[in-house]
Fold these 4 entries.
Entry 1:
Amino acid sequence: MPIETGKIAVRAQCVLTLLAILIFGNACISQPVPPAISEPFPQRGFCDLSDEELRKFVIELNIIGVSSSTAVATFLGGELFILTNRHNLPDQVTLETIKLRNNKYQYSNVDGIIKLGRDYALEKGLGPARDYAMLVPSKPNIFQPLPLHFDRYTGEVVIPSYAARLYEVGRGRQWHTDDLFDRLDVWLEKGASGAPVITCNGEIAGLYTALVRPEDFERAGFKAISTPISTIISDLRDK
């Protein structure tokens, strides 16, 4: 009898162990830990990537019922943030109205706004450009970040965007002539504001901010302007 009792006890323990595995195992499966996001680093060859390959770095920023524009993910201080132009957001920002979408049609809410720059569209005479907004996504792991170029950049660039809800890539050059904005010889459709201006090493050198009117192309000598990343970083350091 003692032997039978021992066998029953062992079986009972096995059943309890199996139940524990099933219960806690299922809990782990139903609530997976989001994958860790590795900080990006510069890498050559970005100007040779196809339009489709560049698409994974673009974020559609949708103001529900108002407009859609472009954003990009990057790292600062070991955390992932979303960068876009300030003028892409309404004057009175409500987090509940902002949605972010990656190229796989996965969506994220915005949990907070770290910093709002100034709106160039409203302040034509402002000094060094600070037309940017930095957002905190609720699901950072669904976005593909790019590193920042911490100095003013002149050279070949690619500019992927969701312009007017359509994906397009601009290819050309960026340069600077003063401390206000960087110049671009690339023109993108309306709605491309906030698109990352990416160097051939895969770094964000600026944010595509505004186009020059077609009738002014020749007189101005450039087609669009971008907010330099170095100006944004300088502004963040100052504040």
Entry 2:
Amino acid sequence: MDTNVFNAYSQYYDLLYKDKNYFDETEYVNALIQEYCTETTHILELGCGTGIHAIELAKRGYTIHGIDISETMLKLAIEKQLQCDPEVSEKLSFQKSDIKTFESHQKFETIISLFHVISYMTTNEDLNQTFKTVKDHLKPNGVFIFDCWHGPGVLSDPPSERTKKFENEIVSIQRNSKPNHISENNTVDVNFDIFIKNKQSNESIVLHELHSMRYLFLDEVTTIANSNGLALTHAEEWLTKKALSQNSWNACYVCKLKK
């Protein structure tokens, strides 16, 4: 994964995803935590981005440590933290680290990885290293909750070229995406051309980015979890809670430490 992609992207990340319903997503994740690990007080978030999920979870009483590989993403997360009420802010901490190599003496009841961060792990080595991070930092009976691209859904409804436009009082953004499906690797290279115009100065810049994403199948997740001391406990369609099907693009998995 190219960290420079996210350092450039982070400047406009929250605007690009301003319509993303972080509140409902947090409610969904919170319900899974309460179902599968009710004793959760401390959460580790792998790939915390600009910190919105973490803040929403802290508002629900959890103490959460977020890690991300992008310094500029983390800068935005910390800026948000400083704007929170003190009782929320004190429950948050952020750290620059790679989710594949993160090390801490602390263990957590729940580890989460949201918004397809796991799909950025495009090789088996990347996935195994990430799942090892999870195993090494989960308490007994702890759970790992993550979402990713679901293989059958991607194959039945392949990604297509798209254009999205966004703006606020300062900038207007047009993002064109062009996917390249590499079926032998179960990956999709998403090429982004992002046109950004400062509405106050009329200055414009263009960002060109490549996001390589891997889609996963149920049996793959089961195998990777098992080989790293975890057991797949539950799988469902992200947010809808429906059973996974060939029409499901986004999967949610819950894994537990093997006893």
Entry 3:
Amino acid sequence: MTDPRADEPLDQKLLQATLLSEIGRVARNLGQPEETFSSVMALVGRVVDFNVGGMAFLEVDTLEILLQLTRPVPPAVVEEVKARLQEAAARDHGSPFATVRARVVGPPPEAAGAEETTLGALACFPVVTQQAVTGILALGGGSVGPLEPDTERFLGTVANLAHIVVENSRLWERVRNLSMRDSLTELYNHRHSIDLVSNEVQRVGRYQESFSILMVDVDHLKDINDRHGHPAGDAVLRELAQILKETLRTVDSVGRYGGEEFIAVLPHTSYDEARLTAERLRQKVVARAFRAGLAPVPVTVSVGVATYPSDKVDSANTLIREADLALYRAKQGGRNRVA
């Protein structure tokens, strides 16, 4: 009679080969880093059942941590995994990191099972590149427990491959962001800002909605550059970019239109609502203490508002034109105002 256990090593090898192949398939379909990470961790979950999976990326002075929850866990458990990963990474790095960033993904809506109130075990698998630790794969949960030697060796292989796949996705995202971001303010650049307006015109056309844009211009920026130098002018633009991000909603988008001009896209926003947002922005700029070194620098903005669809506005180009005309009226009216 054949012993059914005789086939177990073969089945295990087949599973391992299949998982490595599927991780390779994920690598060929790079998406957002979180999506790629979740796909990879779902495959790892077929080898070891875990509640919190983590991947750490060690750079020169920065540590980035991605965490995947497969089941609901209390915040204290998440924080413990972060702390232990950070401790392990600092030990492998040889010193603490100046910057630590962490993102948490999940748990998925279909996640089942009772919430575990403690972490239980945490297994870590370092990723070594050119004799230096560049990453760590971590699996935590009460069901992780002691692992078989074969499983540990396989997870070491998985850790290296998974790190490469997710790191490639992170690099892809960085390159993509560089192609659409303004290097000074880190807002969207001119080209991508125009694309956002065009895309919103198409979207609201399908759903018979409306949206508005703001054209924002720094008043007398040339005077600031002449009096305090271009670095001071650049600092004003960066600070204004921060005020825009603080003032606008998460659904809004903002870009540097060019020079001292910014453009904000406000979905589901009427003309009157957009004017209120513009006025709130104007007041925040007036209240902000801008400085060039120790010297105070008074800064104000003029804002033009336009809404799609409306009179004379039936396309992205005419919308931007109307916002520009409104901005011109605000400047002609004395600056530091909304039109």
Entry 4:
Amino acid sequence: MAQQMLTELPQLLRGLSVTVEVSGIVLVLASFLGFLLGLLLMFGPRMLRLLARAYIDTIRGIPLLVLIFACYFGLPAVGLKLSAVAAGITALSAFAAAHVAEIMRGGIESIPRAQSDAALAIGLTFWQRLRLVILPQAVRRMLPPWVNEAIGIVRGSALLSLLGVGELLLAMQNVVGATFIVIPFYALTALLYFAVNFTLSRTSVVLERRFAYLRY
């Protein structure tokens, strides 16, 4: 059995690399889109704030699996055909961006209004206040929930196996189907997921220490 596990390990590692790659792309896209949505929620014109709120509440209310299927099976109906990987990345990014936007909003709202008023009093523009005063203080509070969202993205990437994307879960299922060695490969797969998420958690701790000097 040990020999079979060593033989099949490269396939699991290839699946892990797909999981990490997809999760990394989604995290970057979701963070960027969530940042923009968060700014619109807090500082945008009324109409844009309403549209951002409608998007966030709608997406957060849809199960991730439904959103993945909608992107893969529904978009071709309107002439937009995506590959399984592209559909999965689109769905995960749209879903995570809504959560990142709420993280962004909460982080900014946690900063006392007096901080912004003081920056305004010394003549800073809006973008200067945001860049030099608000965000440096908010980022430390946003880090823990942002890392939790990153971990959620890694977990959510397992659903892409339902579209045939060769990520870690599908690789494990293929290996189990070929070898009929169930428990050891399930345990090894769980260990690989744990290694990725534990790395993210430790990175969060390092970043929090890095920004620990940001106090008011």
